């Protein structure tokens, strides 16, 4: 009898041990399963958030042709000044026809990697940083568009040129970025290498410091530059530079020798549309 009870107790103990082992294993299993499940959920959310912010860019088969528009003052009076009404009509045209207006960073990325956020892209630039450029801000905000203003850093105290405070306010809107148009707007071709270097380096330093950025774009005064300028621009830390040579920009022109399209006063929308029309594929 005693032996029977002993055997039963032994069996019970064994069953308890097996049940315990099974429960323990299952609970471990469940824990292991829950951990990555939670992790996966978080990862998926992160990816979704990234996707909303950054659209994937498409690689082009053929070299990008980028229309870089060149404006100066938004006013009237001479062939360099485009009236506000015309400039606004042109920005509205770009919006209506689904052109994306690139930032400097985006334009450099597009040109140097031959990728685009979408097929129809333009880069709108305004030289000399006149105060009247501010007239375009309501349109830029309404259309969610972007322009790049090329600053003569030695002119920011002049009444018809943007002050630092005005530039900071424009930059804060996210609709405008700023690049170098040198310190004194001199013909770089007529300067010695040392003088050229001073114009390129000091203007970049001023913009970098005051606008808390790394200035990557240089725009040559009157479009004039030579091989020495190209070399010095690269050394100073600029990634690309713009000329006033008429044409659609392509990387084959050289990073420091990109063409632009001059927008003249009185140009009608049909001419404007023909000027910027390119086929990227
Ligand atoms: Zn200029």
TrEMBL record:
Keywords: Signal
Keyword Signal: yes
GO cellular component term of the entry, any: extracellular region
Domain of life where this protein originates: Bacteria
Transmembrane segments: none
One MF term in the entry's GO annotations: hydrolase activity, acting on carbon-nitrogen (but not peptide) bonds
Main location: secreted
Keyword Signal recorded: yes
Protein's cellular compartments: Secreted
Residue ranges that the Swiss-Prot or TrEMBL entry lists as coiled coil: none
Biological processes, Gene Ontology terms: carbohydrate metabolic process
Domain (NodB homology): residue spans on this chain: 120-281
PANTHER family to which the protein is assigned, alphabetical: POLY-BETA-1,6-N-ACETYL-D-GLUCOSAMINE N-DEACETYLASE, PTHR34216
Protein name: Polysaccharide deacetylase family protein
């Amino acid at each position: 009898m005693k032996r029977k009870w002993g055997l039963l107790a032994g069996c019970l103990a064994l069953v308890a041990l097996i049940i315990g082992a099974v429960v323990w294993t299952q609970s471990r299993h469940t824990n292991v399963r829950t951990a990555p499940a939670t992790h996966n959920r978080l990862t998926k959310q992160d990816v979704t958030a990234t996707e909303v912010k950054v659209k994937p860019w498409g690689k082009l088969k053929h070299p990008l042709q980028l229309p870089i528009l060149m404006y100066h003052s938004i006013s009237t009076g001479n062939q360099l000044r485009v009236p506000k009404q015309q400039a606004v009509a042109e920005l509205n045209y770009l919006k209506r026809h689904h052109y994306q207006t690139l930032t400097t960073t985006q334009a450099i990325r597009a040109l140097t990697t031959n990728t685009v956020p979408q097929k129809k892209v333009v880069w709108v630039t305004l030289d000399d940083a006149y105060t009247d450029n501010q007239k375009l801000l309501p349109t830029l905000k309404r259309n969610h568009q972007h322009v790049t203003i090329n600053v003569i850093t030695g002119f920011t105290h002049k009444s018809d040129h943007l002050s630092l405070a005005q530039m900071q306010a424009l930059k804060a809107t996210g609709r405008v970025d700023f690049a170098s148009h040198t310190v004194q707007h001199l013909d770089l071709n007529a300067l010695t290498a040392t003088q050229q270097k001073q114009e390129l380096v000091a203007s970049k330093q001023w913009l970098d410091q005051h606008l808390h950025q790394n200035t990557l774009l240089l725009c040559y005064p009157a479009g004039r530059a030579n091989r020495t300028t190209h070399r010095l621009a690269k050394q100073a830390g600029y990634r690309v530079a713009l000329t006033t040579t008429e044409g659609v920009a392509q990387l084959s022109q050289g990073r420091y020798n990109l063409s632009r399209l001059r927008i003249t006063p009185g140009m009608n929308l049909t001419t404007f549309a023909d000027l910027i029309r390119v086929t990227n594929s």
